[in-house]
Amino acid sequence: MWRDRRILDLFGIDHPILLAPMAGPVLSDMAIAVARAGGLGALPSALLSHEQTRAEMAKIRAATEAPINMNFFCHVPPAYDEGREAAWRETLKPYYSELGVDPAEPIPVSNRTPFDEALCQTVEELRPEVVSFHFGLPPAPLVARVKASGAKVIASATTVREAIWLEERGCDAVIAQGFEAGGHRGIFLSEHADQQVGTMALVPQVADAVNVPVIAAGGIADGRGIAAALALGASAAQIGTAYLFCPEAKLVAPHRAALKVAWDDDTVLTRVFTGRPARGIANRVIREVGAMSDLPPQFPLAGGALMPLRGKAEPAGSGDFTPMWSGQAMRLGREMPAAELTRTLVAETQERLRQIA
């Protein structure tokens, strides 16, 4: 059925389709749906507590024996910069006043836990078949322990140099994340987001540069995109934004509404929400503060001061202060359950491949 079986055999899945581990929108119900349909389900764990991760994995294991991907961040936590935090809050002060939020009140902590000893123990306990990382890789001893648990290790590369770096450090496959992709850029060897590469240019160059299988990501939302990725040398495609249209996606109402009306050129790379470049639908705070402003504190601290604004705006139906992550192919999104979408993607891809054979 599939000519290139490297990813299928590596992960033990039926179809070369991976659910992107989108932290927030994706939990166990979507992971189960994709896994049951023959793709690789994912559980993004960067925003979950240890207890939540265990509970979500328990739901998955109770529902399916199919392989699952647990995803983690591996950034270096920044030192708290009181001056920068104060300047950021001062920038947002007019919005606080407009929405009736006391700018002097304590703000929530916006934190994403990087992969560490405790999370490694969680992996060793839960034994997912695949573990994926964003922003590079954790220290080598932790990677070795993950692999010793039986998991295959994959990570995102946004350039050929990053892909080679990941292969040299033991990745079993590399995700080639094109510029079109929604959410956080996986960039880790550079801070030059303006030099990032599109999927069509990145995938074949990565495929030529590494010996491990390549997974294409970014701007892929239907069978045409998956077939194109396979033709370019990828062994599979990772799909994100297309799954945000599924009922299983945990989205606030303004985000779901924005996806339905957005145009292909409505997304931007922005540092506003977390301090790291991420692609989302442009909204008021992005436009007024500046998409790539240097004002937000370092990742992941920037989001804390925005939380009270989100808390006021979202219930009123406004996405002015909400990170509405999306890739550039959102207009190809279709509202259908995740299992049905996965099966549809498989059928479309196979038909497209027959046409070009």
Structure overview:
The protein is an alpha/beta fold and 357 residues long. The protein has 13 helices and 11 strands. The chain has helices at 6-11, 28-36, 50-63, 82-99, 117-126, 140-148, 160-168, 199-209, 223-231, 253-261, 284-289, 307-313, 338-356, and strands spanning 17-19, 41-44, 68-73, 130-134, 152-157, 173-177, 183-184, 214-217, 236-239, 267-270, 278-281. The strands form 2 sheets. It has an 8-stranded parallel β-sheet. Strand 2, helix 3 (50-63) and strand 3 (68-73) form a beta-alpha-beta unit. It is globular and about 60 Å long. It starts with 5 loop residues before the first helix and ends with a helix. The mean pLDDT is 96.
